Amino acid sequence: MPSTRALSLPAKGAPFTPTTIERRSLRDNDVRIDIRFCGICHTDLHFGHDDWGGTFFPLVPGHEITGVVSEVGDAVTEFGVGDRVGVGCMVNSCGQCVPCASGEEQYCTEGFVKTYSSRDHDGTVTLGGYSQSIVVADRFVLRIPDDLELAGAAPLLCAGVTVYSPLRRWQAGPGTNVGVLGMGGLGHLGVKIAAAMGAEVTLLGRSPKKKDDALSFGAARFVDTRENAELTGLAGHFDLLINTVPAALDLDTHLGLLGLGGTLVNVGAPSDPVASYNVFSLLSARRGIAGSSIGGIRETQDTLDFCAKHHIASEVEVIPADRVPEAWENLSGVRYRYVIDVATLGTP
Ligand code: NAP
Ligand code: ZN
Fold it and tell me: Is the whole-model pTM more than 0.85?
């Protein structure tokens, strides 16, 4: 079986170790991809720290993958050698259930197979994009539009679609007021995409030093969430709040920012249960609390195409593989996504 260089966490709490891993021989519907870039998503840290339990070690994280097709299986018709492609958070699903049949593989009733730390249908454990090559079934491979650079496109495969999906579902657009909570990888793309959809966007964050960036990404205003007066000044203002914060929020305060029928959508994924809320925060204005998980394959392609059309890419800091441990220690220091140049992993 072909081998490839990768960056692996051998066990919880152990340091990153450069290593060599195997990738499967091509099946008829497989695409082999030479990975060029892989984003560092906060979810990688949740898995590395085993925040949610059940991480498979050794762990090769990474689900914001872009690269170039190097080989295709006999039955592949949609992709050819040299195509610029991407892989996001999913590499398999049952393909039969109602969500799969309707292009929402992320809600597969059997659970989708994650790009890393998942047991695939053949019994193997998946290994992600902190590596130089990956083999993925064609129905989970995305096309990167010509107008997008591979580095800036990589975070769109997870962070981008994760904000794009709820913005579409809750109909962000002209005349709607959208608030984005937290401006890291997901949040900064949330601001850019919601603004491109025509919504009025407010960034709600705890780091005023990010204010100028938020405005340059298309936000109409920045609100410091540590200042109660600033928050309460926006009571009832929003149609939609997208919460990207990976920590529990004061729900009653934030629900109070929603107008009639407004929805708070959680995409951030703290390991602890979120705090309780007063039910009057909901029923007094028919408000809702929801959650949203990444996006289906079709919607991920829509995200890439939408971003290309609107000249949206992730802000990235491209780093070599030996800086990954430092990047993990300082994720909130980046503006706004670390992306690994996997060529720096060396040769097998
Ligand atoms: P990130 O780049 O680390 O950004 C997180 C942002 O949250 C930062 O801007 C940070 O603000 C802010 N923040 C952190 N702790 C905070 C707190 N206690 N109060 C207020 N703000 C706080 O993370 P990311 O990659 O965007 O991911 C965000 C979350 O989404 C993670 O939990 C990740 O697992 C989850 N996620 C979910 C999905 C899904 O399908 N639903 C997909 C991808 C990721 P500062 O800049 O001020 O530090
Ligand atoms: Zn992610």
Answer: yes
Ligand (nearest to CA of 222)? 1
Q: What is the pLDDT of residues 102-151, one digit of tens each?
A: 999 999 999 999 999 999 999 999 999 999 999 999 999 999 999 999 99
Provide the sign of the torsion angle of the four alpha carbons 246, 251, 253, 257, taken in this order: positive
Nearest CA, atom 30, ligand 1 = 268
Q: How far apart are CA 217 and CA 200, in angstroms?
A: 12
- One DSSP character per residue, 103-131 reads T-GGG-TT-PEESSS-B-TTSPBP--SSB
Pocket test for ligand 1, best of 55, 63, 267 (most atoms within 8 A of CB): 267
Q: How many angstroms does the Cα of residue 88 sit away from the middle of ligand 2?
A: 8
| Listed residue (54, 12, 4, 8) closest to 34, CA to CA | 4
- Tell me: pLDDT of 230 over 90: no
Query: CB under 8 Å, gap of 24 or more: what pairs does 92-100 form?
Result: 92/120, 92/121, 92/137, 92/140, 95/139, 99/296
Contact 33, 2 (CB under 8 A): no
Q: Which of 117, 61, 105, 129 is nearest to 301 (CA)?
A: 105
pLDDT tens-digit series, residues 97-110: 999 999 999 999 99
Which one of the ligands is nearest to 293 CA? 1
The continuous run of DSSP H or E covering 268 comes out as: none
CA atoms within 13 A on the CB side of 152: 14
- Please give the DSSP secondary-structure letter assigned to residue 132: S
Please say whether the dihedral angle defined by the alpha carbons of residues 62, 63, 66 and 71, taken in this order, is positive or negative. positive
